[in-house]
Amino acid sequence: MELRLINILLIITFALKVNANNLGYSDSKPLVIGIDQDYPPLEYVDEKGKPSGADVEFSKILMKRMNIPFKFAPNKWGAIANDILGGKVDLGMMVYSPYRKDVTNYSRAVIRLYYQLVTRKGTKRNYGLRDMHNVEVALMASRPVRDTLQKIGARLVIVDDLTKAMKELSAGKYDAVVCYRYQAKYLIGKYKLRNLEQEELTLTPREYCYASSNKKLIDAIDKELDKMEEEGLMDDVYGHVASTFNGIIIPRWVYMAIVAFVIVALLAVILNQMHNTRQLKKALDTARENEEKAKASEEKAHQSEEVARANAEKARENEAIANANAEKARASEAEAQRIADVARRNAKEAEHNAMVASQNEAKAREAAEAARKSEELKDIFLGNMSHSLRTPLNAIIGFSDLLMTMDDSALPPEERANLLQLINKNGLELLHLINELLSLSEVEGDTQLFKREVTDVDYEMGQYASEIRMQLKEGVTLEVVEPIDGLRALVDKKLMRIVTMHLLENAMQHTTEGKITLTYYLKEGGMYVEVKDMGEGLPEKLKQNIFGLLADKNTYTHDENQDNPGLGLSVCKAIIDRCNGKIGARDNTEDGRGTIFWYWTPTEILN
């Protein structure tokens, strides 16, 4: 695919005739390349006053290939950046910034720069973004990194001399320094800062590009960079720092681990499918037994109706006999009256039997309809689960086959990393669906153990909110409204977490702006919990049965406009039902948009 794109770009290049020869540079008017005089190992001025570094060597090769006379103009970075953006120098290299894309032109990425966190040995490791709250961090001015760290509450110190900052970190002035990988490795090695160590930081890598106010020059450079990448010249120049510039080289054991994970996942799916098949067979047998019972009841109803008709006929015959006897023996009027009374009782009994027969017939029809609906639900369940399981499995198998059948050099590291991320994402989705199926089966199968214990509800709800806040989209907030006197109760913490986190995650997925509110309090001898969001609201087709499991053909089915809905709300419903509680959902009329999910369980309150 990449080779096809390169060939298309080459054809367009020849068609438009945009090349270096018509850019207007000559020996008398060479192209001026601005470089940072102190940015090792990429670009700097050495002890002899000569421009040096990987950027300098790469630019020489690029200009020679494009047949453009050039010269270097070293200066401090602040001056060089302004000269590039202001057009005072013709060309320079800098990190791509969306805030500057309207004032200059960027080439395609030459390399990608990855961030690392540098700390002193023996201090707390594995900070990660979540654990950097109130950590004093020194870094060079970078708006995306600064905004990210400020959002999580880190104490930032903006420096203009990274070498000085690394030495001060070694001496104990800061908690950490954020910089690019190659900078950390180079400075630690050069200045022998042996008490420092590096660890990965999950920030988006930055693209290192050529920048110029001359759009035609950047277009010509892009075409030449495509050729150089195809010929492997970028690796020749930047190869000595490949492990610090480019993505992580994936060892063979990672692929083996992925294959093992896929095999285990497939085995889990097969075992779960076998279990579901047994359950469905059992349900089918039950449905058939119900159908047989319904047929037997219907037959019995017909027989009862025949008996009723016979009794009615017999009653009419008795009445006739009574009339005849009365006619023949007026002297036996009392006896005749008795016979008439018997006949009337028989008639009433016949009418009652006819009514019972009619009721039995209606019950038989209901049983037959239940059996038919059970069979229909089985087909819907199998169809939905088959689609939900195949979708991630097809992605996992397809991408893993592609990785195993292609040479390591056939795919760029970025595309290989993207494929691995897709395999991981689909694997997690498959695991999530299997966990939900197992949770639902465990609750519905009467095997779930309810272990109630004394619980600080305020603390648990605060923990759930902290987890969700780290995943909220930008512009969305989460508020917790708790009882004034606090709340301690005798509850099953595991089940309370499953239901509450399901509702919070559901609100988070459907809210792109505004506020999510978690409220809980004592109500009617139990605990009432409410999650209110400002999302798109309940779909009309799901309002009647949002917690149902396949109640009809239009509930929880998959279409092109709906992601895999999962079984989360059905699991919540099953848990709350087992607790003898209530669960529901309604429109958020208070804010004019969104949804309110709530549940109530009878709970022993301790305060």
UniProtKB/TrEMBL annotation:
Signal peptide: none annotated. Pfam families: HATPase_c, HisKA, SBP_bac_3. Residues 384-605 form the Histidine kinase domain. Residues 285-305 are annotated as: Disordered. Its EC number is 2.7.13.3. One of its GO terms (molecular function) is phosphorelay sensor kinase activity. The keyword Transmembrane helix applies. The keyword Secreted does not apply. This is histidine kinase. It comes from Xylanibacter ruminicola.
